[in-house]
Amino acid sequence: MDITEIFEKGGIAMWPLLGLSILAVGTILERLWFWASILLGEKEIINRVLDGATSNWQVAREIALKSRRQPIGRYLYAPLRLAQPDPELFRLALEAAADDELAAMRRGDKLLEAVIALSPLLGLLGTVLGLIRSLGSITIAELGTSATAGVSLGIGEALISTASGLVVAITSLAFYRLFQGFWFNQVRLFRKAGGELELLYRQDWLQDEESDWQDAISQSDRAGNYNKLDQSDRISARTQKSSDLSPSQPDIADNITDNILDPSDATDSSRF
Question: Would 178 be classed as within a structural domain?
Fold first, then answer.
């Protein structure tokens, strides 16, 4: 029995099943090509970007820029293209890129889900229609006679649509679960790569903040020392100026002694 006979005996439900099977095969082939191109080189991209980030962020940015054809390359490039973002903005860029790339990876899943759900129902519908056609041609009086010999053959032909629907659904389900496994692996890989990249960036950010803080402290200490030197110079200048303007205590005492012991003053006083 060839394909043409199968479609003739399967009934009208075989044509919708044929359309669903074509859609399923096309989606499966496209997804297989997609996952094969992703899984072959993404770990190498991650290692190169992380190695570049440990030494020079500009090198890591250029590596991620060259790898934008891959989802992991676009994911890692999203935060690196920002100009000196803070760690929180870096994390938000990673999360937004991960949501976009992981959502794009599930393209075709809805179509496979529809094929998996509709194929058995269409097959069952074809079987029911075949049974109605087979059993509708006999009467109660003909039961147990040779007239019912062709009923069993009709029932067997009616089950062809159910078997075809199950074949399409099972095949689609197998590849759907395979693609789901690939997707969950990508989720774990994205989280691991993003976490390591964010950790490296936070460490570098803290080191820069610490160096800036130390520079600010050293500058403030230098400014304080300059102010202290200026203040001490001003105090010493004021002390020197006051010492130049005011007479010393020994000079005042000598003047008082000279005035008391001056004999001319004593002579003048005796005259009176």
Answer: yes
Q: Is residue 258 part of a domain?
A: no
Phi, psi of 84 (to 5 degrees): 50, 60
CA 39, distance to chain mean position in Å, is 18
Tens digits of residue pLDDT in 151-197: 666 677 778 889 999 999 999 999 999 999 999 999 999 999 999 99
- CA–CA distance, 18 with 166 (Å, rounded to integer): 12
- The closest of 158, 161, 139 to 148, measured between CA atoms, is 139
Query: Residues in the chain, how many?
Result: 272
Q: How far apart are CA 51 and CA 216, in angstroms?
A: 31
Other CB atoms within 10 A of residue 46 CB: 24
The pair phi, psi for residue 108, each rounded to 5°, is: 95, -15
- Would residue 24 count as lying in a domain? yes
Number of domains in the chain: 1
Other C-beta atoms lying within 10 Å of the C-beta of residue 78: 22
Closest CA to 12 of 109, 91, 123: 123
Dihedral angle at the C-alpha atoms of 175, 178, 182, 187, nearest 10 degrees?
100
Q: CA dist 240 to 2, 237, 250, 252, 260, Å?
A: 122, 5, 18, 19, 32
Structural domain including 168 reads 3-217
Q: Which residue has the higher pLDDT, 195 or 236?
A: 195
Q: Cα–Cα distance between 182 and 39 in angstroms, integer? A: 9
The answer to whether residue 123 is domain-embedded is yes
